[in-house]
Design brief:
Keywords: Glycosidase, Hydrolase. InterPro entries: Beta_hexosaminidase_sua/sub, CBM2/CBM3_carb-bd_dom_sf, CBM2_carb-bd_dom_sf, CHB/HEX_N_dom, CHB_C_dom, GH, Glyco_hydro_20_cat, Hex-like_dom2. By secondary structure, the protein is an alpha/beta fold. Among the domains are: 36-194, Immunoglobulin-like (Sandwich), CATH 2.60.40.290; 233-339, 2-Layer Sandwich (Chitobiase, domain 2); 354-537, Glycosidases (TIM Barrel).
Amino acid sequence: MKRRYTLILPLLSLVLTGCQPDSIQQNETENSINAESSIANFAKNIEVKYEIITNRSDDNCDPNVVDGLCFQAQIRLTSPVSFNDKDWKIYFSNMGPIQQESSEEFDITHVNGDMHTITPSQSYTGVIAGQTYTIPFRGAFWHLAQTDMMPNYYIVGSDQTPHVLLSTKPQQDAETGLEILPYSIPLTEQDHHFKRTEADNTQPATAIWLYKENQANYVTRDVTTSILPTPKSVIVDSTDKSLDLKSGLKINLVGISQEGIAAALSRLKLLGISQSTTGINVTIKNQPGLEGEAYELIINESEIYIEAGSDTGAFYALQSLSSLITPKSTVVPLLTVKDEPRFDFRGMHVDVSRNFKSKEFILKVLEQMAAYKLNKFHFHLADDEGWRVEISGLPELTDIGGYRCHDLTEQNCLLPQLGSGPNRDSHVNGYYTVEDYKEILAFATARHIQVIPSMDMPGHSRAAIKAMTARHNKLMSQGKTQLANQYVLHDVEDSTVYSSVQFYNDNTINACMDSSYDFIGKVVDELTNMHEQAKNKLTRYHIGADETAGAWLESTACKKLLKDNVTGIESAEDIAAYFVERVSRLLAKRGIEAAGWNDGMGHTKKERMPKVVQSNAWTPLMWGGHKAAHEQVNRGWEVVISTPETLYFDFPYEADSKERGYYWASRHINSHKVFNFMPENLPANAEFMKDREENAFVSDDTVQTNDKGEITHKPMEKGKGFVGMQGQFWSESVRSDDQASYMIFPRLYALAERAWHKADWELDYDYDGKKYSQDTSYITDEMYKNRDLDWQRFSNHIATKTLYKAELSDLYYRLPTVGAVIENGVLRANTTFVGVLIEYKDADTGWTKYTGEVEVNTPVFVRTISINGRRKGRALAVN
């Protein structure tokens, strides 16, 4: 009866008004089309401008949000056409949540994550053609970079059809090929734009500043015998003799498989050195007395001899031979190399969850990793904004979790974030099929790289939660209740109000429900199958475990768990540790070792964790990061150094508002900074490193106690240390393969150098504990001098060898910005890599190759150019 009533009522209404259903439907359709046409026209013509007013916090910042840190900005809207519709919303992403706006005509509302809406206020009367409307607001944190602003604003009307505002679409810079955001008004170098506090001593990376930074080490060095990463021992047998490989290589294998070295031989072929039956004899022999990754390489006047502990060692020996090759030459020096790695774990982390990256990009990263002897690929495949690998039996993970689009119900895709825009076919969306993933694994296997997958949890799990919610809803509608509840990840009765670090209120897997662990087991089992088929066995899985934001407090399931007196849980605050401990044991039962970020892992109890645990130490050194790292080493865990001040490759290269990247731990991480890092003695880096505002800090590694006399910190125990180091690339603000490649390279080469080779200028760790600062001098002047000499060699090698080979691989690396000064009308220029080609342009000339000091007429611009001339670096003005 109720159903009949709801069907009849609209017809009754039509009769009472004297209208026919067909005519009403026609009028409604026409009105809808007209409104839609008006909105589409508005989206096409509206001009949006986003302008930062100041990055300095004041008393009007919300004290309850991110410690009262905020910036002031404004969005300006100007339309050449009038727009009177009042039923619309503009959706846009903003890196930090907007706290307050002061517009009479418009309201800004935070939706979730970084998504906000602009809507007409009660005072709104329509948009008048040619009139500019300004929306002042305050947002959390800062906007110090041009690329902090997110693109692809879109508007929807009553029919919910989205239209991207054309003026907010990203464009491509004609010279550099990089993404630019024309609607974002450039920031200046003035303090209120460039510096977040009065104590900030960061200097803008102008051409003049860069020139001074580069000049001391702008020295040409012969790198004929240089190998990267640097071997443990190199003895040059002759300086006036060499071996020419132009006839190719005749490979003779003894106890080494062809399959194990095939990829290294392919790289040599790329460099012009092929296999040949009439080529130089290369004997590659297994030597059981050597460790698995160790090798010896002998090049004499007539042949090459290699001994290796395994296929891997032989592979690395051939990569060292590739490193000796200079551009357009087949001649190599005569020398003897004895080599083994500094660390067992030499990793690179790549996040494809926030913004998807193509399979081809991943293969290029793996190729470069292998060429420079990195052996662990931390593959970040799932986070709040996306799930990127197909899991058999759970199609919703990728059908829904692999895409962001305008679907407010999130039953077909996730809510747009990070400037993705409303369209499902955006290039930031997507996933790897089972076959794609196996291809990536096989490619890594051939290059002796272990793939460590990561689906972050329990926080950072919104993509999985929403996908499994959609699965639940679909199966419930089919009456399949048991199946529907099998992999549910959230408690529908949980009324907890929380906000994650990325400002989501629904991104944390419920740690108190068995279905959450059933889901994890299912995912891990499917990953295991794919890894086995690709011969890249899944022996380690990265849980994530970081940044869990006060969830579960009002969860019915968690209240029950607390009531049941489950071991290890005394209060709701213990639930996060319980989750990590339980997942770690779940993995251990499958023969898989658990890994995670140090903060989340640190909450667990050692006795409730498996014997082998990996922890990525990512707490910034300026905030005492060495303490967490040392504490977890002392637990007996395998600690991998992942220090953000030097190893986060999503941060800007230089302190310049036009350089892309987040900067919460550092305004600049160039290759030189990575190279200088001492990973085995974390606190000692305080003697030359500075904090995120370029101020000195103190690292105290002595024994410390609290008021009760309890030890709160102590140095690493003698004989213990770190197992390795890892570079990190996060993709929140990186939407293209080229930009991702730009962020990773050439910094990856400095990472490889430090991970493989311990330099003689590095200060050994003091197990008795010391306090370090820029007032201490444990690093001697002689050590600094040797470091500079070592950098000069590395710098020349990168410019004259590495980048040439990168171009042969069609790698989109960053060309450095140029340092330059004009003194008495003479231009002097340099770069961080000695030998990179420089061009200049003054008032009288077009771009001209810079070969040395030259008289110029101001204004002058300088830039670098690739060896093949196809790409240009970002130009800087010289005043």
